[in-house]
Design a protein that fits this description.
The chain is mainly beta. It has helices at 10-16, 295-298, 300-303; strands at residues 28-30, 40-42, 49-57, 60-66, 69-73, 78-82, 90-93, 99-111, 114-133, 136-143, 149-154, 159-160, 170-177, 180-185, 188-192, 197-199, 209-217, 220-228, 231-239, 245-250, 265-266, 272-273, 285-286, 315-320, 323-330, 333-340, 346-349. Helices cover 4% and strands 49% of the residues. The strands form 7 sheets. A 6-stranded antiparallel β-sheet has the order 7-8-9-10-11-12, with no helix packed on it. Strands 3-4-5-6 form a 4-stranded antiparallel β-sheet, with no helix packed on it. Strands 13-14-15-16 form a 4-stranded antiparallel β-sheet, with no helix packed on it.
């Protein structure tokens, strides 16, 4: 299947999409199978918002949001566990048993014994977290009273918050290792080199917000940037031969539609997926060499979106370029979808 240039038959696509609706009452997980008799696995918790998805592979995926529970997939079945707070904004999984999550005022760690609070800061709203290991964790957000950014780092001994770092609200964090960590937010992109935080000049000629930071190391960074809630593009930051930062911006703008790309997921190889809710059928793909032509993805606007799909993409995480999850709000409530690329382009509505 060619994603960059091939136009996929819309009728064939619609025929294979899962179009089960999430009920207004008890929330269910749906797992589509070719055999007759695939049913719903009931869950006692009901999300009012799905905020984040992360894992270490096909057999270890966690989903958090607002609703008082955490969903976990072990490669065979989904299960739920009580969340340490009613609302969790982000999760980062580092092993089968260990994960970190953030929310209002606190950072929590999950181990084999369950969830426990490991850091608190009154007045803080932590919105994202990245962990290199149990001994290096970065949580970011803002002070709800002053709206200034907060970056808290755990170095294996203590949690530290550089009070002298006065920055706007921080929305996202991604790191390659403890000596290279990026954070983005409202009109700010910062890099931590293991010793100090340095501001990166983006060259954007508008007020912006950076979300959904991802990267592949060696200075290559990918993120979603928007100037307002209805306009979004994907930006690639790379370093040229002279060591200078180079930014490439990819927007989906056809027939008057605003830039629609809402999320980005990067692999360790050369597969970069940049979906938006209206191009879930064949997300644009960057192969590390060629820049995709966004036209084919944009024409999905004309044909609409699959029934029951998210109206916007709130979270994205992938196992590989052929297997990834997206979540976001829909008319029936928050939904979580999984895409497994096979000849049928099989979407599965999980929640």
């Amino acid at each position: 299947m060619t994603w960059k240039h091939g136009v996929i038959d819309r009728l064939a696509l619609v025929a294979v999409l899962v179009t089960l609706l999430v009920g207004c009452g008890r929330s269910d997980i749906y797992w589509r199978a070719d055999e007759i008799g695939d049913g719903a696995v009931p869950f006692s918790c009901e999300f009012s918002d799905i905020a984040d998805i992360h894992g270490t592979g096909s057999g270890n995926v966690r989903v958090v949001g607002e609703g008082g529970c955490v969903l976990h997939f072990d490669g065979v079945e989904w299960s739920e566990e009580p969340a340490p707070a009613d609302k969790l904004n982000a999760v980062h999984v580092i092993s089968d048993d260990v994960a970190f999550a953030v929310g209002a005022n606190a950072v929590w760690k999950r181990s084999s014994g369950g969830w426990e609070q490991v850091f608190s800061m009154p007045g803080a709203e932590f919105v994202d977290v990245w962990a290199d290991s149990e001994n290096f964790v970065v949580a970011v957000g803002k002070d709800t009273d002053t709206n200034t950014g907060i970056i808290a780092i755990y170095d294996g001994n203590d949690w530290k918050h550089p009070a002298s770092l006065v920055i706007p609200s921080v929305l996202s964090v991604w790191g390659e290792h403890p000596g290279s960590v990026w954070v983005g937010g409202e009109d700010v992109l910062l890099h931590f080199d293991g010793t100090q935080w340095l501001a990166e000049e983006t060259g954007f000629e508008f007020e912006f917000a950076i979300r959904n930071l991802n990267g592949r190391g060696e200075g290559e960074l990918w993120f979603h940037v928007s100037s307002d809630p209805d306009n979004g593009c994907i930006v690639r930051r790379a370093v040229d031969d002279e060591g200078t930062s180079v930014f490439q911006t990819f927007c989906c703008q056809a027939w008057g539609f605003p830039g629609c790309y809402e999320a980005v997921w990067t692999s360790e190889g050369n597969d970069i997926l940049m979906p938006c809710a209206s191009s879930m059928g064949h997300p644009p793909r960057f192969n590390g060499v060629e820049v995709f032509d966004p036209f084919n993805a944009c024409i999905d606007h004309i044909f609409g979106v699959p029934e029951g799909a998210p109206d916007r993409l709130r979270a994205i995480w992938g196992v590989s370029a052929d297997e990834f999850y997206v979540a976001g709000p829909a008319a029936s409530g928050p939904v979580l979808w999984k895409l497994e690329f096979d000849p049928k382009m099989n979407w599965k509505k999980i929640y």
